[in-house]
Amino acid sequence: MTFLVHNSLTGRKEPFEPLEPERVRMYNCGPTVYSRAHIGNFRAYLFADVLRRWLEHIGMEVVQVMNITDVGHFTDDDEDGGEDKLEARARREGVDPWKISEEYTRVFFEDLERLGCLPAAVYPKATDHIAEMLEMIEGLLASGHAYERGGNVYFDVTRFDRYGRLSKNRVEDLDAGARIAVNEEKRHPADFALWKSDPHHLMKWESRFGPDGFPGWHIECSAMARKHLGDRIDIHTGGEDNVFPHHECEIAQSEAFTGEPFATYWMHTKFLQVDGGKMSKSLGNVYSIDDVVERGFEPRVLRYTLLRGHYRQPLNFTWEIMADSRKALGGLDDLVGRLRGVCDGRGAAADEGAGEELVAAAAGEFEAAMNDDLNTPRALAALFGLGAPVREGRLGARAAGASLGLFAAADAVLGIVDLGDGGPGGDPDDDAAIQALVDARREARAQRDFAEGDRLRDELLGRGILLEDTADGTVWRRR
Ligand SMILES: [Zn+2]
């Protein structure tokens, strides 16, 4: 079966064909680590995770790179206005910007793990790739795609004729669209900064353009993708807000520099809405994974909620929907329990081979749905479709075994099926030893001995135990 993906560049669903057979080079625009990522951000990162897992499921080797933006991302996407997000926070709170990025990077990795995302091959940081960015900037200056004005280097959009192909913007329209006072240094209002000089910037590097420079946000991703994946890549993902200007500018820089097409497929995730509207600080509904856990939900309930909608459709989040998701997942867990029972002869159809065609159809539908541009809601429906036949005793032992196989495969891709062997309930001696460590960690934290608490958590992690601190105490499960 062919895997069809919707390519934002062409606006069509296309068969997925990597540049190299069975090897996929994928770049995901990652977080800007100036604050905690919210559940809407995680919709995009979770999509990247499921995409990677599906590619692996269909036999590809995936090299996944997700960047960490720790400098140069402005509060307004147009860098003539606004302020570097990290620096704005650092100034407001009187904290070192390096400390802020370090802290939120750590929290980001914790959240990713809690949400069950597999680690990418590399998480490159922008501040570790200044030399690679300067190399590209020099190349763009040499080829006439960029120009320098007083320590600032701009990309000249009029020198790249495919500018606007992804976002369907036209350079001549962008002229009128300049929202902020025209930057007199620029040849064209849509030109964007590759390098900026500012003696007041806290994070800055010396270059031939001056002593106090820092990169523009767009060049970071072009340089990191090239460094870790090469001049050409298969898939580039991001949120819908990344299409313009960020990804449009990435294409211009990368293709002008290498002379080759940059990414074959561009895939974009739609925003998550909360309570039917945009998330906002003033409404107090910018939720993090902590908020989800504090409300008593396991992170996998969030994972399921985010997968209930197709990534190219708007999706709404409410706590009622979360409660509903928890119930649905409970139903799925119950189904797995019943299937185990059928395998052991309980509640099974008299005929051992009964219902095999139902399971084969569900498995076929699951594959077809995922191959159709990762249609996760349809894939989930295929799994739930086995509920009625199981409850009505229409499956025999062989079909139940095959169903469990399908659930295991689905779990490897979606990461939401609790196959019932992850939590307490394994070897009783081992369970007791783990519980003792979990209790010791709770005690240490109660005594505010966080170093000891962290040490115990690491020891548990080393034994493959994941911890989840909920309002009702700490829950653990095997990895
Ligand atoms: Zn990016």
Give a brief outline of the structure:
With 479 residues, the protein is an alpha/beta fold.
Structure description:
This protein is α/β, with parallel strands linked by helices. The protein folds into three domains: 20-269, HUPs (Rossmann fold); 289-414, no CATH class; 428-478, no CATH class. Helix content is 45%, strand content 16%. Helix 1 (39-57) links the parallel strand 3 and strand 4 (61-66). It starts with a strand and ends with a strand.
Write the layout of secondary structure elements.
Elements: E1 4-7, E2 12-15, E3 23-28, H1 39-57, E4 61-66, H2 85-93, H3 97-114, H4 130-142, E5 146-149, E6 152-155, H5 171-176, E7 192-197, E8 205-207, E9 210-215, H6 217-229, E10 233-239, H7 243-258, E11 263-269, E12 272-274, H8 289-294, H9 299-307, E13 315-317, H10 319-343, H11 356-371, H12 376-384, H13 387-391, H14 397-414, H15 428-446, H16 450-462, E14 465-470, E15 473-478
Parallel strand pairs: 3-4, 3-10, 10-11, 12-13
Antiparallel strand pairs: 1-2, 5-6, 6-7, 7-9, 8-9, 14-15
- Helix percent reads 40-55%
Proportion of residues in β-strands: 15-25%
- The count of domains is 3
Shape: globular
Unreliable spans are: 421-426
Q: Order of strands across the widest beta sheet? A: 5-6-7-9-8
Assigned CATH superfamily of the largest domain: HUPs
| Main sheet summary | 5 strands, antiparallel
* Small molecules (ligands, ions, cofactors) in the structure: zinc ion
Overall SS class: alpha/beta
User: What's the total number of strands?
Assistant: 15
